[in-house]
Amino acid sequence: MSLTPNLRGALWMLASAVDFTVMTTLIKFLGPGYPAALQTFYRQLAGVIVLLPLIARDWRGAFRTTRPGILIFRSSAGVLALIMGFYAYQKLPLADANALSFTRTLWLVPLAAFVLREPIGPLRIGAALVGFIGVLIMLRPGAGGAHGGGWSAWIGWPQVCALASAFLFALTITGMKVMTRDHSPFVLLVYAAVLGLIFAIPPALFVWRWPSWPDLGLLAAMGVIGTLTQGAYIKGMEAGEAAVMAPIDYTRLVFAVGAGLLLFHEVPKPATLVGAAIVVASTLFISWREHQLAQRAKAQPA
User: Fold this and answer.
1) CA 31 → CA 74, 258, 289, distances in Å?
2) Are 79 and 197 in contact (CB under 8 A)?
3) CA–CA distance from 241 to each of 103, 176, 203, 257, 295 (Å)?
């Protein structure tokens, strides 16, 4: 019995969500002994090792590019996003960190307007603003800085890093949209892995420590699972319709709540769940709206 494209894509997306939850669980578990910068290094190293057999088949084609500047910028932004994101997953409850990571879709709206010069209508602007209201609902009770006043009284560095990581990931996605006009996804993946490893070395040296053999196995597993997460996500989006696949990606929030509750005894706050629901609803609307506009563009005669 053959599976429909959407069902096949849905299975890939669920696999990506499960892989992502396992990876973030390992990030949090290893956090006390291995800072975010060091974890990022091992994650990039594992990614390069996984890609080496594919690169060896055609190393010239894997590194062929006409825009090295954009690739360097995209990779450096991606490494910084990983370090900040890993720090957020170490310090925040898994549900909170996952919910804040979804804001990258909200950041894509202004980036599409200012960087890609894409027209954005009032509906998408309104959805993005509503989504950021959901972010404020999540942040307000976070009490990132319990001492003192000002902004630190209700938002701390983990929350700042989570939002900054989402913005930087949105920036790399915007760069990918530019690069896919004349670069294959594989070339972009190779450069992201190799340049990412190079850029991850300096910050890792500042916090370097040699891992024990069991920890090295967990760090390697974290890196490999991170690469598998990306691969499953790409396969899911390729197999099914983007508008159908997008909601399935949000199942990782459900998995994160379960993992946080069972493994780290993290009970989500009501404000986190309400704010996350608003963010998810707004990002789903943005994804649906973009799909509708793309369908209309295809339907217009040449």
Assistant:
1) 26, 19, 38
2) no
3) 21, 19, 39, 27, 11
